[in-house]
Amino acid sequence: MSTNWLRQNFLFSLGCLLALGTTACSEVKSTSPATIAANPSPSEVAASNTTQLRVAKYKGGWDLNLKLAGLDDFPYQTQFTEFTGGNLMVQAINAGAIDLASASEIPPIFAIESQASVKIIATLKGPTVGQVVLVPKNSTAKTIADLKGKKVGYVKATTAHYFLIKMLEKVGLTMKDINAIPLSIPDGLSAFRQGELDAWATYGYSIPQAQKEGARVLESAKDILSGNFVIIASPNAIADAQKKGAIADFLCRLQKSQNWRESHLKQWSKTYATAINVDEGIVYQDAQQGQQQRHQQILPVSEAAIASQQQVADTFFQAGVIPSKVDVKQLWDNSFNKDIAKCQ
After folding, report:
1. Which of 35, 37, 201, 309 could make an S-S bridge to 154, C-beta 3.0–4.6 Å?
2. pTM of the model
3. Between 42 and 192, where is the model more confident?
């Protein structure tokens, strides 16, 4: 891979981040080297060489959760870099800029097509309540079938892309039967507000923001999506004994921070709302609904998780989104299964 190619991709990703008003890199935390015991723990292995673990995160994401839970005392150097989507995280891992990240099941599928160097090391099970198709307040649409021939915005290569395909499929339609317009979430919200879309397949806090202005949910993807998000890592980081130990320790800290979050939901919501500049009431209500649906947990690699992602990949192939059928099993690495089980 050429230096020019890597530089171009890095600048492109950086440009995306700046355009969306995000920041990059939080403080780096480290401690002095630890002595390796006869049977060292993952954190002891990581600390022995003061390893630096480079972690991708979303605004107000992993770093905030770990700090609030008092679990950011890493025995290795940890650098957080902020991204706006799993697809950019996959690019960063492939370019050798990041060691660890998270995404939905979908970005790694496109990584196969582009022959990107990335591995899935765990499943991050979570709620799917904030994934819907919205229509404006003056819309006459009653079902997804009413969107035939209409302008429908969606976020390409994401869960929104997938559930829109599945919703159309249920009523005998395909993406070709609508005027499908791929848009980022900020652009989609702007277009929706300006009346440029007849419907919008989206997720996250853009939904309550649009609902405040009269938008209504045409259909929810809550029961379409598996709730399987994935934790992805660089193969080079996995092959490095010190970094692998750091990753194992980090995964356990993540699980503990999620447990803390669920038992301190009000406190977390207040801090998170400030971090992302969204009304605290919206954040807390969304968090409560998500917790009622499904508790968040990190799970080891399993045949069921692989099968779930394969179903998504097959759907994209059948819809013509990817040019050929892919086998997702090649993405998965179960070498952290014992560490995850031990943490639980």
Report:
1. 201
2. 0.81
3. 192
